[in-house]
Amino acid sequence: YRRLHARETRLSEFNQTEIKAMLGSYTKVLFVRDPFHRLIATFLQGMGLSPSFSSFVQEVLDSGMHNGSAAWKPLVSLCRPCLIQYDYVVMFGFLRQELGHLLRRAGLPAGGLLPELTDSQVQWTYRWLSEQMFSELSAQQKKQLSHFYRWDLAAFPFSSSFLSD
């Protein structure tokens, strides 16, 4: 794109014509993950200062949509999937299968480039962790989280998410 080296770095700083031209010249890939799994990962990485998962979730809920960290904000507010037509959406938990397909579509050899991914073990671990962490939350927190991530749950197939219940 002609303004590739312009001073602007955020897409929102370009006008609609420039955005359309720029996005049309790229292959757009969106990596998505169950919002509840994102919360668990953020908590386990120590990005929240809370001593318990329940108090961390309350911090997230209190911070709201506009003041929260990108680590836990709803994906639709960060990636704008309704405005940007992504060429590929890759689901966490199916990385090996989907990345192989994506690399083949790009004309690259998928076999040698992919790290060893054990998606089934990751899914089992997150299922177990989700059960443990979800049980720590109050009914009100569960309801508020489902509402907080309602657009992510509507936009992506997180059918097995604890927040979908």
Summarize this entry quickly.
By secondary structure, the protein is mostly helical. The protein contains 9 helices and 2 strands, in the order αβαααβααααα. α3 (53-67) packs parallel to α8 (139-148).
Description:
- One of its GO terms (molecular function) is sulfotransferase activity.
- This protein has helices at residues 16-24, 35-44, 53-67, 75-79, 95-105, 110-113, 119-135, 139-148, 150-155; strands at residues 29-32, 88-91.
- With 165 residues, the chain is mainly alpha-helical.
- It has one domain (11-155).
- Strands 1-2 form a two-stranded parallel ribbon.
- The longest helix has 17 residues, at 119-135.
- The mean pLDDT is 82.
Shape: globular
Structural class: mainly alpha
Distance between the termini: 44 Å
Structural domain tally: 1
**Mean pLDDT, nearest integer?**
82
Number of helices: 9
Q: What's the helical proportion of residues?
A: 40-55%
Low-confidence stretches: none
Number of beta-strand segments: 2
